[in-house]
Specification:
Blueprint (H helix, E strand, L loop, with lengths): L2 H18 L3 H23 L2 H17 L10 H15 L4 H5 L3 H10 L7 H6 L1 H17 L3 H12 L4 H7 L4 H22 L11 H11 L15 E2 H4 L10 H11 L2 E2 L4 H10 L2 H7 L4
Antiparallel strand pairs: 1-2
Helix pairs in contact: 1-2, 2-3, 2-4, 2-15, 3-4, 3-15, 4-10, 8-12, 9-11, 10-11
Amino acid sequence: MSKHLDKNRADDQILIDRALNGSRHAVEVLVKRHQDFVYNVAMKMVMDPEDAADLAQEALIKVVTNLSKFQGRSSFRTWAYRIVVNHYLNAKRSNAEKTVTTFDAFGQALESAVDQELTQEEQITMAEAVTEARLGCMSAMLLCLDREQRLIYTLGDIFQIDHHTGAQIFDLSPDNYRQKLSRARRDLYSFMQSKCGLINKANPCRCRKKTKAFIQRGWVDENNLRFANSRLKSIRDSLVERQRDLADAINGEYLELYRDHPYHSRGIAERIGKSLLSDPRMIKILDLEN
């Protein structure tokens, strides 16, 4: 294990010990280290910012209120993310998950959305709405995966959790984890290859042509954009390292599309941490100091 990893593990243990002794500051530091990631994964699970905030906050509360059970057999991050993943797997289905169910059903919904070409002026004035349509449509494709597949793909490919850590988080053997990740890629990219025009230009579906229909159906709200925020950096830019471990170039291109999605590092994610520190469950269990 590298000195850097040793130091991170030691730092986490110090914070955990202080948190268990009632240090509000230690809890705050632990939460801040992980709140952005936990929230952004939640966004891939439920699509809606407020639903994702609720899901992430409940997951982080479970992590913090179970700190006394951490025994250091793995890194704190691996232990904490296992709790988060289990919470996401067992949470009540979100509104988005009830709406988007299978690839077949979503494909039919896309086909029934009538193409409407934008004028040159509309392409300029509706540029953010078109981006919202693209990002929202791709996020909906993720919802067609079952929850385990969605989480494994999100952590393993989009956020580049290494396979060994991923296997530990999901309590799987490394081989089983890789098989599940490969299956999730196959299902997702097979649908995109057959329906989406972003990579396969032979497909007629184009984001700009679907945007008006998406607005009419309420899938895109021009006054309340969930994804197309130019102030946010991309997931790819948030990653410390970039790795391309896919042999199939087409699969790699689809993955890059998902890594271009926005990464929320302020705003709602920050509010999660602040409200979490005042949660009565945490205050009672950890006897937090004022």
